[in-house]
Amino acid sequence: METRANYVLIGAFALAGFVGLIAFFLWFARVELDRQFTYYDVRFPSVSGLARASEVRFAGLPVGTVVDVRLSSDDDRVVVRLEVDAGTPVRVGSVATIESQGVTGVSFVGISAGDASAPLLSDTVEGIPEIEPGRSVLQSLSEDAPEIVSEALAVMRQLSEMFNEENRGRVEMILSNLERSSEDLSGALDSFASVTETIGQASTDIAAFTRELEPVISTVAGTLETFDGALSEVGDLAGRVGRTLDEGDAVLRAAQSALASVDSFMADDAPAAVDEVRQTAAALRTQLDTLGIEAQDLIAEFTRTGRAATARLTEAETTLARADGLIERLDTTLETVERTAASADALISGDGAEFVAAATRLAEDDVPRALADLRAAAASARTTADDVSGLITLEAPRLFDDLRSTSGTVRREVDSLGTEARALMATYAETGAAATARLSEAEATIAALDAALARVDGTLASIERTAAAVEDIATGDGAALVADARTMIDTANAALVSVNRIAETDLPTIIADVRAATGTAARVTEQVGADLTAAAGRIEGLSDTASTAVTEAGETFARARATLDAIDAALVTGTRTLDAAERTFDGASRVLDEDITPITTDLRSMITQLEATFATVAEDFPQITADLRAASASADSAFAELEAMAREARGPVSEFAASALPQFSQLAREARGLVTSFDRLVRQLERDPSRVLFRSPPPEFRR
Q1: Are strands 37-44 and 130-133 parallel, antiparallel or unpaired?
Q2: Where is the Mce/MlaD domain (predicted)?
Q3: What mean pLDDT is reported for the chain?
Q4: Are residues 483 and 583 in the same domain?
Q5: Cα(first)–Cα(last) distance of the chain, in Å?
Q6: What is the DSSP-derived secondary structure letter of residue 60?
């Protein structure tokens, strides 16, 4: 019996199953019918493990497949064509590399993203663009592994050669030398510690010296203050001497005016007076008694004038005696200065020899010579005063006797003199009064001179105290004043030369002028006595003699004025010398006040810094030595570990190269075969899926 079958229904079910199966396979193969692709070529030097249908990934994401692999006709490279999704942003800077995935080593093409700012590669060229090939990590490792292994073996051999027995001995020798150096350095640090103690002791000594120097500085300051007082006193003395000289100039001007009046009288009025005397001689005889009384008054006036002159000479003698005492004080002061110079010589026996020689020469030659000249001048002045006193004492009585003897003759001649003789006597009375006034002024001048000598005495006492203070300074630290003292001595030498020149040239002239004036006064006195005997006919000669005497007196006063000017110049020179000495002591005081303290402070700070530095070095040096030893030990252990690691890795590396590498090669071949089989299966599915899937025998109903 034949089987009944609905062929239409069977055919419909068969077609539905076939369509469903095709849809399943399409879904399984992820076939996208509306998908668009872009093709790229890559020229690889080697495509080991890569074949058609291999996956293409962009930044790790699958974007296409390899559609063709062929040899290039231009060079020995392999051209691989990639089918990539059209939306994949392959840019100009993108690089294609052959990567391996998983343990099986399935190869795929990886494309890097490149620079986001670069343009797309498909927009820059026409046709099929080419992506720049690159090397993957596995390719770099597989290609560079032999070179790396060879270099590692070379390094290991060099390390083995480096750490041979000879080098080990050298390292041990270096370590032993370093240990000995550390011991020597420790000894050096101990010695340096002793040096630090010595420096500390030196700083203590310097501090003690500074404390001892402070009283010396205070003494110098007191000495400078005393010297300032002495300088101020000398300045006051110079001012008083100037005022005294001004008063002397006023006296000289008054005397010159008086002498000018006498000269005019002698030149103009004397002849007329002589005529009038002759005419009035008779009238004078009647007035003899009155004239006798007036003559007695005149003689009394002259007597008072002589007494005043004697008193002034006595005061001058007292003044000269005080001057002698002052000279003796100067001798004592010079002896003190010589002792001070000897002390200074002990201080500056090296650098100050020249200064001591100059001071000794000044003390032994110039100053005694100047004092001798002053003493001679004082003796001459005393002799002159004695001569004047003797002249007044001896000649005045004789003159009075002559006057008394000739009084009768005068009475006979008085009548011819008349009123003009009375006027002449009145003029002489005024002259005597003026002389008395001048002597009174001379008394004030002598008093001022006495005060000046007292001030000089005080100044000498101050100088003696200053010399004592300078001697104290000389026993301390006075070498810094040598240069300034030389300048002061040169100035003093110049002043002494000026004083000596004045004493040698002007003082003898002054004394000679005084003696000449004294002799002239004596001659005038004798002439007056003789002329009074014959007054009638010799008045004209008397006038000439008086005129000559007045002229000589004027010349004497002029010379005295020149001498006073020279003395004034000498005082100015002495003032400059004292100013130079004051500046010298000011400089010394400034040095002691300003320079000693900063120098001491700098020394102390420097010593403190040295101590801190040495302490820091002493503290850090053991740590540095320990660090060096630790570094050498670490280097030794590191080299030992490298050597052990190389020795241990030699066997595994050899075993890996002998057994593992061939197995990896076999695994790669099997993986390639598997991939090829999968590739063939995929191609068959693409060509005829139904044939691959439904290769079973035909159904029974077809039979």
Answers
A1: parallel
A2: 39-114
A3: 67
A4: yes
A5: 16
A6: T
Q: Do the beta carbons of residue 120 and residue 91 sit within 8 Å?
A: yes
Distances (CA, A) of 251 to 166, 256, 557: 118, 8, 10
Using the structure block, give the residue that is written with the tokens 């001995």: 169
| Distance, CA of 284 to CA of 292 (rounded, Å) | 11
Three-state DSSP at 416 gives: helix
* Token pair in block for residue 210: 């500074």
pLDDT over 90, % of the chain: 8
DSSP β-bridge partners for residue 666: none
Three-state secondary-structure class, residue 39 = strand
96, 227: one domain: no
In 3-state terms, what secondary structure has residue 131?
strand
The pLDDT, as a whole number, for residue 144 is: 78
Q: Are strands 37-44 and 106-111 parallel, antiparallel or unpaired?
A: unpaired
Region 246-267: mean pLDDT is 62
- Rounded Cα distance between 398 and 391, Å, is 11
Residue 254 maps to a domain: yes
Specify the long-range contacts of residues 149-158, CB closer than 8 Å, at least 24 apart.
Answer: 149/653, 149/657, 156/646, 156/650
Among candidate residues 594, 610, 644, the one where a domain is terminated: 594
Structure confidence by residue, pLDDT tens digits, 78-121: 999 999 988 899 999 899 998 887 656 688 899 998 888 899 88
227 plus 368 within the same structural domain: yes
Residue 165's pLDDT is 83
Q: Name the least confident of 60-64, 361-365, 556-560, 561-565.
A: 361-365
Residues shown for the chain: 703
116 and 235 belong to one structural domain = no
Query: Which string of DSSP letters, residue by residue, matches 315-384?
Result: HHHHHHHHHHHHHHHHHHHHHHHHHHHHHHHHH-TTTTHHHHHHHHHIIIIIHHHHHHHHHHHHHHHHHH
CA angle at residue 289 from 285 to 292, to 5 degrees?
A: 105
Among the three residues 88, 111, 143, which one is the final residue of a domain in this structure? 143
pLDDT value, residue 431: 53
Q: What is the pTM of this model?
A: 0.25
Domain count along the chain: 2
Pairing of strands 130-133, 95-101: parallel
Strand partners, 58: 61, 111
Is there a domain that residue 63 lies in? yes
Rg of the chain, C-alpha, whole Å: 70
Kindly state whether residues 274 and 407 are assigned to the same domain.
Answer: yes
Q: What are phi and psi of 78, to 5 degrees?
A: -110, 125
Give, as one character, the DSSP assignment of residue 59.
Answer: T
Q: Which domain holds residue 567?
A: 208-594
